Amino acid sequence: MQSINGSQTHQNLLEAFARESQANRRYLWFAQVADIEGHPEAAALFRSIAEGETGHAHGHLEYIAEVGDPLSGEPIGETEANFKASIASETYEYTQMYPGFAQIARHEGFDEIADWFESLARAEKSHALRFGEGLAALSPQ
Amino acid sequence: MTITFDPKHPLYIDEADVRDELTRVYDVCNGCRLCLTLCSSFPTLFSYVEQHEDQDAGRLTPAQQDQVADECFQCKLCYDNCPYIPELHESAIDFPRLMLRHAAMRLENGQVSLRKRVATQTLGHADALGILATSVSTISNLMIGAKPGSIARKLIEKTTGVSSVRLLPPYAKQRFSTWFSKRVAPVLTKKQGSVVVFPTCSVEYLQPGIGQDLVKVYERNGIECSLADGTRCCGAPYLHSGDMDGFLKVAKKQVTVLAQAVREGKDIVVPQPTCGYILKKDYVDYVGGPDAELVAAHTYDSSEYLMNLHTEKGTELDTNFTGTIPETISYHNPCHLRAQNIGLLSRDLMKMTGADIALIDQCSGVDGMWGFKAGNEQFSLPVAKKLAEKIEAASSEIVAGDCHLANTAIIEQTGQVPQHPLQVIARAYGIAGETP
Ligand code: SF4
Ligand code: SF4
Ligand SMILES: [Fe+2]
Ligand SMILES: [Fe+2]
Q1: What's the predicted TM-score (pTM) here?
Q2: Average pLDDT over residues B317-331
Q3: Among A53, B63, B125, B169, which is disulfide-ready with B206 (CB 3.0 to 4.6 Å)?
Q4: Cβ separation of B30 and A123 shorter than 8 Å?
Q5: Which of B125, B363, B85 is nearest to B247 (CA)?
Q6: What's residue B266's pLDDT?
């Protein structure tokens, strides 16, 4: 098969991956709501379909991986590369994305959301640190 | 570390093991942060972890670990929120139950201040305290009614450990069970069921009016009501302060008495969400066995039972509401009802009267007895203030709520006196409230 790099299909795979990923998280959240409302069967249904969406997202990602990480653009595939790509995306989130989002939220008068973004910046930093440790543990000197 | 929520596990109160487990869970929470705004435990935790460049939760001192745990008041909201709970994830995080394990560990190792221990004794012996207080209710109401922050209250605080800045629920002149045994039960025309009313300390001693309205509403619907001999405090104050032995002693007795009632064909109804949660979930988890399961399977919140009458085939709820119905009701959904995973049944029930309901989904910060303990008020008061703001913004004709403790916080913060949903239903049927 020819490379998908630069094709409309690559764009479509990226969009489909984003949608399926979001579908998975939405259904898991819906399941939680169903649990609280006392509808365990509805919760189980949401959870089981959510798994299906994960499968779809993974299928898309397998094609996308050939070109690179959809979030960081870094190469992905094997664990070492995957760690590096993860560190790159987490670092972007904690150094640029969330601080920027927080600033805008505060500017727009959404202080609670600004606090939430700022707290997440620190959480993502801890993710980046943990992945760094994971990467180091992978190739002992 | 060991992941266990079983007080009989040999490492349940092992300090080193508990501290390692705290580290493990605190680390996951730090990377997740979903519970940031639920209470002050989480911001406190995150601020400690952030003191270290590497964000290693293992660097927290024991005192810092304890501070996070001490700020937890067992509302269970973080459990409902968490994607890492034992049922869903191998990380098996049950944050509130870990906080209970921590409290048990500290109590066992003598690390709890004397003042806190006396408060648990005082609040934990709600029964004994109640018997005493109802017989001298005028005096105790005078004392408890002493202005928050006043010298009298400071004195009570000093001697009992009960916070002097919180408004305490007043004691009633006649206990619920006394009223129940003196009254003449009506002959039921169409019997639809039979229940044991679990009185709960708050209805028995503080708000018998809720119990009276419950009984009248149930009897109107053909539900025979009885009390079970030997039902006492459910044990929540012991459990929530880490006194596992005290809790298990109370809990085992209750399970025996209640299981017997279920075998006689009765269901159990509980008008107070904290106690309902204890009967439905904590007896199963901490006492265990077929009797605890039986009790849990037959325990209903007082609105849940009525809604079942309405929705199930073969039974019927009287929806002929010809009494007093407010146009708008602000309904406070208590955390411990939310944690029962039954939906918003008190809201649905009151909705059937035709009233417009504004849902107030905000913790009151007094779950269990936590908010009333001296030293805890700086954490629980901001939470209660948020609740007051939401109630004031809704500005409904009346306020309703199932939780007696949360209702007390609402009175304290807004001056409005909330009604229990069963009282709203009683008035909507045209049943007059008895004078307390
Ligand atoms: S149970 Fe409630 S008070 Fe305790 S940590 Fe969870 S959210 Fe906070
Ligand atoms: S209790 Fe669960 S949801 Fe809440 S911060 Fe911790 S890991 Fe996240
Ligand atoms: Fe992350
Ligand atoms: Fe994230």
Answers
A1: 0.79
A2: 94
A3: B169
A4: yes
A5: B125
A6: 97
B35-70 per-position pLDDT tens digit: 888 888 999 999 999 999 999 999 999 999 999 998
Q: Which of B205, B197, B182 has its CA nearest to residue B128?
A: B205
Whether pLDDT at B306 is above 60: yes
Domain co-membership, A44 together with A95: no
The mean per-residue pLDDT over the stretch B247-257 comes to 93
CA–CA dist A90, A104 (Å, integer) = 20
Q: In chain A, how many domains are there? A: 2
For residue A117, the domain's CATH number is: 1.20.1260.10
CB distance B26 to ligand 2 below 6 Å: no
A69 domain-assigned: no
Calculate how close chain B gets to A36, using CA atoms only, in Å. Answer: 4
Asked if residue A121 and residue A90 are part of one domain, the reply reads: yes
The answer on pLDDT for B238 being more than 70 is yes
Q: Answer yes or no: do A54 and A84 share one domain.
A: no
Domain that holds residue A106: 79-138
CB contact under 8 A, A122 and B50: yes
Contact of B318 with B220, CB cutoff 8 Å: yes
Residue A70 lies in a domain: no
Distance (Å, rounded) from C-alpha B434 to C-alpha B436?
6
The helix/strand/coil state of B376 is coil
